[in-house]
Amino acid sequence: MKLLIIEDELALNQSIVAFLSASGYICEFVTEYSAAVEKIELYEYDCIVLDIMLPGGSGLQLLKYLKQNNKTDGVIIISAKDSLDDKIGGLQLGADDYLTKPFHLSELSVRIAAIIRRKKFNGRSLMTVGDMEIDTAGQSVKIKSKPVELTLKEYQLLLFFIANKNKVLSKNAIAEHLWGDDMDMAGNLDFIYVHIKNLRKKIVQAGMEDPIKSLYGVGYKMQL
Amino acid sequence: MKLFAKYNRINVLATIFIFVVGSVAFYFALQYILIKQLDETLHSEQQEIHEYAEVHHQLPDIQNTKHQWVTITPTDKPLLKRKIGNYRYYNEREKEWETARQLLFSLNINQQYYIVSVSKSEVETEILLKLVILVTIGMVALILLLNFFINRSIINRLWQPFYYSVDQIRKYEIKDKQSLSLPRNSVNEFNLLNESLNSMTQRIEADYLALKAFTENASHEMQTPLAVIRSKTDMLLQQSELKEEAIKNILGIEDSIQKLTRLNQSLLLLTKLENTQFALNEEVNISELIEQKLEEKKELFLSRKIDVGRKIEPLVLLFHQQLAEILLNNFLSNAIKYTPAGGMVNVELNSTKLVVTNTAANGSLEEDKIFQRFYKAQPNQEGVGLGLAIVFEIARAAGFSVSYSFTNNQHIFSVHFNWK
Question: Which chain A positions have a beta carbon within 8 Å of B254's beta carbon?
Fold first, then answer.
């Protein structure tokens, strides 16, 4: 899977590249508009991570360019402007998703995974992770060919873990993914524990080895 | 007191004073002249009597009239000087006391002295005086009355532009983005006032916009460094060789970034609510949205052992989807954060209002401060104190009103939809 990271803040760009590369993506990165246009003209990407404000031009122009040239690259906008500003503009121009800065890299990762699934497999993807088989269209999970009943939150949690496998996920990142960032957690993240416990119980009951590790005081990690 | 009333009071008092003083002076002047005339008549009568006596050496035969009469009495002691004065007498015919002017002088006819008294009734003079005074008073009253009405209508008309300006200023809100443009008019003073006000509000507006832009820009500029820090902590956490102490520090940073991010987003939202005209043209199913939000936050309520009661009637409002969500989120987040464990939260919706009630932990909040920015009931509390300020601004943008009250140890927050 090939990604293009277009972000003018080099420090952020490097973090994104490092994190996503470790997740198995092939990442290329640029920090300027002209370089981005060049890359887009020459290559095709599974997903483009696009900052709106760029030296030399606007990310929205790039979106227009992609649309005019019938490019099918998936696009996720990362912007300092929040949804009340130009989310609609970006999405209307053909972006697939929108993430407001600052975000957790794990959140970016799960969104990219979702975009690629939708784009590549027309949303009809069957994912196989170890003994698990996940139908993202039907939102159903089978372990060793036997269906496992998951609640919506448990299902979202599972996809989040899979998109960030072998990554340490802090409780904050998990809570923000499941409940959105408009939620003020007020320091009490215990309810996350309940969901994770239930998910692990169901996986183990289905006869699979528990892939989720608790890292005491830090968070969780799915090891596969 | 109105300027006109104040001016009028002084004016009327001064006018009355001048007219009273003038009338009194006029009265005395007139009286003086009339008496003088009377005296002249009496003197010429004396003259005639003297002349007659000198020529004929006998007393004249005098016809008394109703208003003038002469009495001649012989005497041993002639007057050294003639005397003139008033005396009162009883008029038989009119049956009343009247005043007469009397001139006394001596006459010598054939070595016999006489005292002659020539009297003339003052009734006519008095009548004339009375008439003149009456006419004067009538005129004064008429002038005052006319003055009052003319002033009132003219002054009211003259002040019209002033009241118009005041009305405009009263309606003016710097947040409305509708600048104050008071019109020119024909009165220099009002022109000066309007021009000064116009330029003053223009300056204030420019400053206000600069300040708003500053807040918005500052918040935006903060997003990128925050994103960098957050991505770096995410990366740091991935390093397996980290010691527990280091991890704790990283998580501490992560928590603070999260708080800073929220604070920043809240500030951004607040400035945006003030700077932007939101089109309130989306049909938002409020009742469904509430159910959805309550469902989303079910675990949060559960984890704090908070009971949620609801009485929700179906309601669709012309509103803004995202603003509606933020408004509900803030109410519910507050309820989760500040309801003590085992407490109760109630959400009530009908066509006129949304009411969110929750059990209080520490008594009543300050009603007049609760919707202010950075208000905290306790200084050490978790949130940043912008949630309700945002609710307030959203309600304002939508033309709703918000209120807070406290009864039975419960905080009651209401949004009234104010149907027009």
Answer: 170, 172
